[in-house]
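Sequence in, structure out. First:
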Amino acid sequence: MDHSTQHSGTAHGHSAPAGGHGTHAHGTTWATAMKATLHCLTGCAIGEILGMVIGTALLWGNVATMALAITLAFVFGYSFTLFAVVRAGVSLKTALKDALAADTVSIAVMELVDNGIIALAPGAMDTHLSDGLFWYAQLGGFAVAFVITTPVNKWMIGRGKGHAVVHA
């Protein structure tokens, strides 16, 4: 995925409100929250699906497969922010700190929702990569996670937390 056009100006391509005061509650828009959530979800989805594919292909049990998927979701989720911030000229140490601050809550909420849906969907935990239910549960979980995480990101950005740290 090419982020070069997305990341002009600020680390995630979102602009701060007029007046140059950063992103505050009164300047936080749903569009900004949705962009931040979609950006985070993209990294999470890549890691989550890769982990599920690897664990399922290796015939691992549910717990080991989900642990790998969640770990990779965090790795890919953080890396999308990390690379964007470093590309914007921030040092690696500062970029890592910003990525952790920006994405930890967002990824955690997404993973809790997504994996909760997969765990609760009848039969989804027992599917294989070739089963439609495997993919429907994944995609449905991502869709619900996006809907639930967007207000969380809006709330955090409005309080100068999460993705607001990256935008500063």
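Second:
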Amino acid sequence: MLRAARYLLARHAHADITLKAVADRAGVSAPLILKYFGNKDALFARVMSFESDADALLDAPLEELGRHMVRHVLEGQTQRGADPVLRIVFAPLQGEQGEILRANFRAQVSERLAGRLNGPDAGLRAELAVSTLLGLGVMYGIARGSHLRATSVDVIVDRYAPAVQAQLAP
């Protein structure tokens, strides 16, 4: 249900998405969504949270975090067809809900990463690292860069992770 709601949120404005559309996409009934989430707002509050996605994205020691983050984004695309962190790129489509998405992203991803970094400019370095990752994710998953997609995940990680890791270092 959450995956279906995320899919629709990436393609339509929040106000235009119905519970029926989410249910149809998920292969369940709308009453089942209501049973689990209570209402559309509660469902989308979960969809607009990056908390569990950030847990997975940041789950590595600092000295290996760049490699882990790059692999996480690429494996999200290759194994699950999407990386949930990338839904931030659709915030402009969401009107008022987009600001919730942005605020959650800043607090749950960027600021959380900054809190793990040592030295000066931790916030800037975190945002640069996340920006670098988002660029890769957009080119791989949204623009579907043919050269990227024809290259193994391991090769991309070897080439790209140092750019992310460099932003994490003071």
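Remark: The CA atoms of residues 145 and 151 lie 10 Å apart.
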